[in-house]
Amino acid sequence: MPRFSANLGFLWPDRPLLHRIEAAAHAGFRAIEMHWPYDTPAKDVRAAAQRFGLATLGINTVRGDLTRGEFGLAALPGREKDFEASFDQAVAYCIEAGFVAIHAMAGIVPPHQRAEAERTFRANIARAAEKAAAHKLTVLLEPINPRDAPNYFYSTQEEAAAIITELGLPNVRLMFDCYHVGVAQGDILRRLAKVFPHVGHVQIAAVPSRAEPDEGEIAYGAIFAELDRLGWQGWVGCEYKPRGQTDQGLAWVHRLGVVL
After folding, report:
1. Right CATH number for 3-252 from 1.10.260.40, 3.30.70.60, 3.40.50.1950, 3.20.20.150?
2. Model pTM?
3. Over the stretch 95-151, which tens digit does the pLDDT of each residue have?
4. 239 tagged catalytic
5. 3-class SS at 8?
6. Which residue among 86, 103, 193, 224 is least crowded, i.e. fewest CB within 10 A of its CB?
7. Measuring CA to CA, which residue among 101, 105, 100 is closest to residue 82?
8. Catalytic residue, candidates 142, 158, 215, 226
9. In what order do the strands lie in the sheet with 31-33?
10. What pLDDT, on the 0 to 100 scale, is given for residue 15?
């Protein structure tokens, strides 16, 4: 059975970040991951995680200008300096807080900019990976489904895997988010096995609701069994939006026979 991480971007949204860390530990999680923790001092996050014995996994680069609907910068032509600054910010936070991976958010790309965006993204990720490697950090590439993020730079596992193969950098890995795969593509078990050599992290949530993983279209018991069969040694991030109170929703753990 895989090991599970609490994604504090979604879980316990009713309390400050440091209290979410405490809640994750009390719920039985042994690792945490976050979206954009930058408003909370990194040293405080490290201290809280150490106090409760939690591994600190990954964070995201910032989305950019939210008033313009930006959702990442790595693939945006003309915004190379902005992405570099956002990645430097993430690296510095990881070093101080103890995180080990950065999801480099790609961004929304109009169809007419697609070719230029592909060149921009590859160049940005190559430079970012070099910086990350100096601190033993992993760069994660995560396709996001087009229902939730229309015109996001990529939506399929194969697109990201092709970029990873082309770059050939050992610290650039795939974020296999079962929710996004389920919404964008389906055929999750076979797709997981196909891209497994590139996978650096796994995340889960119900399809189509993105709620706890005990409802909807995905039989997560089968996903966990496949991860075991493939020899997955990493964590599985619980990146779902609770139906109600997070602690009550954790009944899914018992329904699926999971040990946190």
Report:
1. 3.20.20.150
2. 0.96
3. 999 999 999 999 999 999 999 999 999 999 999 999 999 999 999 999 999 999 999
4. yes
5. coil
6. 193
7. 105
8. 142
9. 55-56, 31-33, 3-7, 235-238, 199-204, 172-177, 138-141, 101-103, 58-60
10. 97
